[in-house]
Amino acid sequence: MLSALIVAMAAPAYSAPQVHPLGPGLYAYISDNDASANSTFLVGTKAILVVDTGLNQQEGGKLLHAIRDLSPLPIQYIVNTHYHPDHQGGNSTVGPSAIVINTDWTRERTMQVINSLPASERGRFRPADLTFQQRITIQLDPYQADIYFPGKAHTSGDALVYFPHQRAIAMGDLFLNRSSPAMDQGSAKTWIEALDAALKLPLEQVVPGHFELATKADLSRFRNYLNDLYQQVYALTEKGATIEQVKQGVHMEQYQDFRQYPKYEATFADNAATIYSQIKEQK
C-alpha cells in the first residue's frame, strides 16, 4: 500500500530536468523522472533553501548539480513538504549539513518509514532537525519563505511553502498539474479549503509536486476538480449509494485531460472511493 502512496508515476515527460526562474533568487526544478518530485530552491545572499529533494541519491545529485550551476552558496535549509520518499530521499545528498524542516507529524511518520526499511536503505533519509505545528518563517536575506501546515490534505502533515517576494508557492503533492492525485491519510474536504486559501494569496507561479510548472489558473482548475468530485460523491452518499456505485456514478468528463494512474490508486474512481470513505467516517 505504501508504494501506492509514493506517487511513482509513469514514463519521464522530459528529456532532462528543467530549471525555471520564478522571480528574484527563486527557481523551480522540474524533474525529468516522474517517480521523483519537483523541487524549488531560493538563493539568498549568503545561503540557499531547498523545498523537496527527490527520490534518492541519484535524483538528489541531479538537483544539486542544477543548483550548483547557479550558485556555490551553502544549502542551509531543506523543507520537506511531506513524508513520502520521492520528496525527501535526496536529503542527505543535497544538504548533508542543512537544517531539515517539516511538520511534527511528518517527522514522526518519516521515522516510522525509516524504521521499516532495510538498514542499507536508511542512509538517504535525513529526518527533520526543526519541526513546527502551524507555521514557521525562514529569513534568507533579502527574501523569506513562509512555511505552513494548511490542515490535513494529501497527508495528515503537509507543508506548503509560500515565497511572498516572488509571488510563488511550492505545493508538494497538494497539487499535481492535470492529474488525479494519490490520496494518503488526509482529508479531501480540508484539502479543498487549503487550495482555496492558497488561491487567495498574491500568486503568479505554482510548483506542483510532479509534472510541469503551473499557473494560478492551473491550480484553480485542480481545486475545481477536487471540489466537483467531492460534491458528486457527497450527493451520491446522501442517496445511500455504495462505494462501487459511487466509483461508477461520478461524471468527470470535463477533466478528461487529467492523467490517470490505476497502479497507484490515482484515478477518478480511486479519488471518489477515498472521498466516500472519508465522508462515511465523518458521519
Instruction: Assess the beta-strand content as a share of residues.
Output: 15-25%
| CATH architecture heading | 4-Layer Sandwich
Distance between the termini: 25 Å
Output mean pLDDT: 94
According to DSSP, the number of beta strands is 13
- Largest beta-sheet details: 7 strands, mixed
Supply the helix-strand structural class: alpha/beta
CATH fold type: Metallo-beta-lactamase, Chain A
Q: What letter string, H or E per element, gives the SSE order?
A: HEEEEHEHHEHEEEEEHEEHHH
Number of helices: 9
- The share of residues in helices is 25-40%
Domains, number? 1
Radius of gyration: 18 Å
Q: What is the CATH C-level name? A: Alpha Beta
Low-confidence parts lasting 5 or more residues at pLDDT below 50? 1-14
Per the principal axes of the C-alpha atoms, what is the gross shape? globular
What strand line-up does the widest sheet have? 1-2-3-4-5-6-7
Name the CATH superfamily classification. Ribonuclease Z/Hydroxyacylglutathione hydrolase-like
Oligomerization category of the chains in this entry: single chain
List the topology elements.
Blueprint: H1 2-5, E1 18-23, E2 26-30, E3 39-43, E4 48-51, H2 57-68, E5 75-79, H3 85-88, H4 91-94, E6 99-103, H5 104-116, E7 130-132, E8 135-140, E9 143-148, E10 160-163, E11 168-170, H6 188-199, E12 205-207, E13 214-215, H7 216-238, H8 243-249, H9 268-282
Helix pairs in contact: 6-7, 7-8, 7-9, 8-9
Structure write-up:
- This protein is an alpha/beta fold and 283 residues long.
- The protein has one domain (2-222): Ribonuclease Z/Hydroxyacylglutathione hydrolase-like (Metallo-beta-lactamase, Chain A), CATH 3.60.15.
- It is built from nine helices and 13 strands.
- Strands 1-2-3-4-5-6-7 form a seven-stranded mixed β-sheet. It has a six-stranded mixed β-sheet with strand order 8-9-10-11-12-13.
- Strand 8 and strand 9 (143-148) form a beta hairpin.
- Helix 6 runs antiparallel to helix 7 (216-238), helix 7 crosses helix 8 and helix 7 crosses helix 9.
- The longest helix has 23 residues, at 216-238.
- The protein is globular.
- Residues 1-14 have low confidence and may be disordered.
